[in-house]
Queue: 2 jobs
Job 1
Amino acid sequence: MVESTGRRLLLGVTGGIAAYKAAELVRLLLKEQFHVEVAMTAAACGFVTPATFQALSGHPVWTDMWDARAGNAMAHIELSRDKDALLVAPASADFLAKLAHGLADDLLSTLCLARDCPLLVAPAMNRQMWEHPATQRNIALLRQDSVQILGPDSGDQACGETGFGRMLEPEELAGAVAAFLRPKPLQGVRVLVTAGPTFEAIDAVRGVTNRSSGKMGFAVARAAQEAGAEVTMVAGPVAQPTPSGVTRVDVVSAREMLDAVMQRIGQCDMFIGVAAVSDYGVAQAREQKIKKTDQNLNLELIPNPDILAEVAGLPNPPFCVGFAAESENLLEFAEAKRRRKKLPLLAANLVQHAVGAEESELILLDDGGSRVLPKAPKTEQARRLLVHAAQLYSTRMQRKGKS
Ligand code: C5P
C-alpha cells in the first residue's frame, strides 16, 4: 500500500455498533492523505476485529497497554507523540465519561490523557443515553477542555429508536477532521455571505424568483468557516442545511436581503455576494391571491437594489467578492461587471454548467488578471476561492498597515 505523506492521525475506536462505520472512515481518511493508525478498546474488538483495521490502514492495530512493540514499553506516550490529532470514533457514552473525568484504565483512555495534540470525538449511542443529564454534563466538561465534539446526528438508530445519538456519517467525519487540521488563513476575519435566490411576491402565493440551489453560497460559507473566519450568511429561500458554526439569517426578498446585509456590514471585513438576487421586484404585490381569469395579466416589474454594488460603493467598504453567472462571452462580461461594481475579486462561471450542478468550473478575475479553477465539486471550488480571497485580503491589509 502507498504510504501517505500527509498529516498523522490516531483513530481510537470504542465499543459501539457504529464501530463498523469506523472501517469506512479509515478508507476515507486515507483518501484525505492522512497517515492513520488505529487503537481499539477491548469492547470495540467485540464489534469489529483489529484485522479489519490493520488491513485498511496498513498498520498494526494497538489494543494493549503492555504491547511490546512500543520500544520503551510506553505505548500510551509514544503513540500520541508523532500525531497531529487524535480522533475517537465512535466514542461511546462510557468512554466520554472516562475522558471527561480523566480516567485512564486502558490504552486508548491513557493515550487521550497523555496526548499533546488536539482531540476530536464523534459520540455514538442510543438517544436516551445521549440525552441523559450525565452524558450532557460530560460533554460540557469536554468542551471546556477544548475537546472538539463532532455530532452526533439524528435519525434511525441500531436499537430501533429514532433521535439524536447516531454517529456522523464517515464522509462527514473525514471532512470535519480534514477541515479542522487545514491552515486557517481567515482566522479572526469576519465574513458576510449572501446565498440562494430571492423571491419577489406577486400575491399571497405567487412570485418571481431566480434559479439557484444555494449550493455554492453554502459551500462558500462553510469554506470560510473552515478557514477560521467568523461567518454570517444571509440566505434566500432555499433547502440547504446550515453549515456548523455559521450564523444564518433567513430572508425572502431582495429588499429584505439588502436590509439584513446593511445591518451587519459595519461588523464585517469581507463580503461575498453569491446570492442569485432577482434583478426585478413586483411594483405592487397583492396581499390576497389574485383570482384566475381568462384575461391577460400584466405585471409591472421594478429594478431591485444591487446589494453587492451598494456594499462595494460604501465609503469604507469591506473586501468585496462577487460572482457572475453568464450564458455567453464569459470573460468579457464578467470583467466588465467586476470593474463596474468596483470589486477586487470576482468568480465567473457559465450558467449552463453551474445552476444546480454539484461541480463547477470557475474563473477568478482580479487586478492581477485571471486564473482558471478547473472543474471540481463546489465544496472544493469554494475552498480554492477562499484561499485566493484570503491572499488578496492579506496583501491589502499589509498595504493599509504600511500607508
Ligand atoms: O446579477 P449579476 O450578474 O449582476 O450578479 C453579480 C453579482 O452581484 C453576484 O455576486 C450577485 O450576488 C450580486 N448581486 C447583488 N444584488 C443584485 C444582483 C446581483 O448582490 N441585485
Note: The pocket of cytidine-5'-monophosphate is lined by residues 194, 254, 273-275, 277, 279, 304, 306-308, 322-324, 337 (CB under 6 Å).
Job 2
Amino acid sequence: MSETVQLPDSVDLVDEPNGPVLRIDHDRATGEIHLHGAHVTSWAPSGSRDQLWLSPESEFGPGSAIRGGVPICFPWFAKGPGDWEPQHGFGRRLPWRLHHAGEDDHGVTIALRLASSDVPDGTEGRDRWPYEFTAQFSVTFGDTLTLSLTVANCSDQPMPVGGALHTYLAIPEIERLSVRGLDGVSYQDKVAGGEDEQDGPITFTGETDRVYAGSGVVVLADGDTSLGAVRNTGVRHTVVWNPWSAKASAMPDFPDDGWHGMVCIEAAVPYDAAVVVAPGEKCTFGQQIVPASA
Ligand code: BG6
C-alpha cells in the first residue's frame, strides 16, 4: 500500500485500532493525521491547546467519514451538482498512501497521495466521476497549520474538480464567536434557503450553513479575544457551518452539546463552480490556520 518512506525523528506511524495514524511530536507542534482520508485530526502549536475539534463519537472504520479535524471533500463538495452520493465525495472515505515526511526547524511536513488506481472498483460515487487523477495532500504542522490539496488530471479529457478543506476549529463558545472578513459578500443560505449578503461580522444564533461567494482571510474572535485567522487560497468560496442543537442531536457521530465548541470554516469549491483542469494540468486548493499567538 504505502511507499517506503523514511520517517524523521518527530514522526511515528502507529497502527491504532482506528487505523494507521502518523503522530507528530516536534518542538513547534504536535499533531495527528490518519491515512484514512488523509485526515488531520489534531494540531496543537507548542504551548497551545489543540486548535481542531474532533468528535469523541466519530467513526473511523473503512468507508466511514471521520467527524472533526480536517475532512478532505473530494472530488465534489456536498452533493456535487445535486444528488450525488456520497456527500462530499469519496476521497475522505478511502485510505491514502504516505508519500513523504520531512522535518526542519519550523515543523513537520507530511504528504499523502490518492490516485485513481487506489480507488477500488465499486466505490460509491466513482461512476459519477470516472476521471484518471492523482491527488496529493500536503500538511505542515508548525506554528501555523498549512494545508494544500493538488489534483492532477491524468485523463485525456477536461476534468472538473470540486471539494473542500472542511476544517473543524475548536472554539470556546459558538454563541460568543464572531467571524470577520466576509462583510458585503453574498452567500447561499442552506438553512433559510435563497441568497443573502453578509452585513458586518458573522455571529451565530442558530443552525448556520452558508456558502459565501468570497474567500481570503477571515479572523475569529471569542467576544473581544482574538482566536486567530484562517486564510484560504486557490478557492473562490468559504463555507461556514455550525449544526446547532437539533441537527447535532440527530447526527449519530456528534455529541448532543458538541456544537457549542466548534465551527467549520471551509475552503470550498462547489461543483457548480468546479475548476476544470485540462489534461496533464493540475489545480491546488489551500488553507492556512493561524492561531492568535502566532
Ligand atoms: C458542510 C455542509 O460543508 O458540511 C453542510 O455545508 C453539511 O450542509 C456539513 O451538513 C457536514 O457534512 P457531513 O457529510 O460531514 O455530515
Note: The chain has one domain: 11-172+240-291.
